[in-house]
Amino acid sequence: MAARPALYVRGASLPVRSVWRCCRCSYATASQDAISLPPLLTKLRVDMKEALKVKDKPSPRLNVLRGILTETTALEKRSQSVKNDKQIYKIIEKQIKASTKAAEEFASAGREDLRDKEHGQISIMEEYKAAVKSVSEEEVVVAVQDAIQQLQTDGVTPKRERVRRLLFAKGGTLEDKVINGSEDIVAKTVHAMVHEVAPSKNKQQEKKDRVDHEK
Question: pTM of whole model > 0.85?
Fold first, then answer.
């Protein structure tokens, strides 16, 4: 079968198909640029550029930045775009654990020089980790209280799973937030506070049943 002749746009040196591809590529690039990056990722990339300007041997900060950004790129390649600081926070936590373990092994082997190198990099990672605003335990309590009240206002029984879904849902108080300490704090707080409101409701129901029975 003979190939179809290429159609050309008047005044353009490229076929219509090529023009369309170029437009599509330009649109995709513009769309990607329009997406706002997480603040910490922006900071890491800026610091990386500054660290690369140093002509001397690679600094501990440059090594740390390369490690974090390599993990970030790997995450994006797994079709999990980096949308918030919490994802980067978890990457840094993972690398801190790895460096801590390495430092212990170097210390056991009598390599204090390498142990100190790991400790230096851990300090830099802790610095970036601290740049992410975390939610305190007190703020978790307030968030759980508000979620329970919202469910009650809507006439819904505040069960634990419902409260948790409301907290972490799109637009929820704790959506993509880093919890100071551990997310176990949220589970424990929800469990305790839902248990507190449940008995009072049971008593009200018992009183209502008793009145109905007397009628």
Answer: no
Q: Within 13 Å of residue 119, how many CA atoms lie on the same side as its CB?
A: 10
Provide the β-strand partners of residue 178.
134
d(CA 170, CA 176): 9
Q: Taking a C-beta distance cutoff of 8 angstroms, is the pair 40, 91 a contact?
A: no
What is the Cα–Cα distance from 86 to 129, expressed in whole angstroms?
10
Q: What is the pLDDT along the chain (215 residues), one digit of tens a residue?
A: 555 555 444 544 445 444 434 444 433 333 444 457 889 999 999 999 999 888 766 789 999 999 999 999 998 888 678 888 999 999 999 999 999 999 999 999 999 999 999 999 999 999 999 999 888 899 999 999 999 999 999 998 899 999 999 998 888 888 888 887 777 889 899 999 998 887 554 555 555 555 555 55
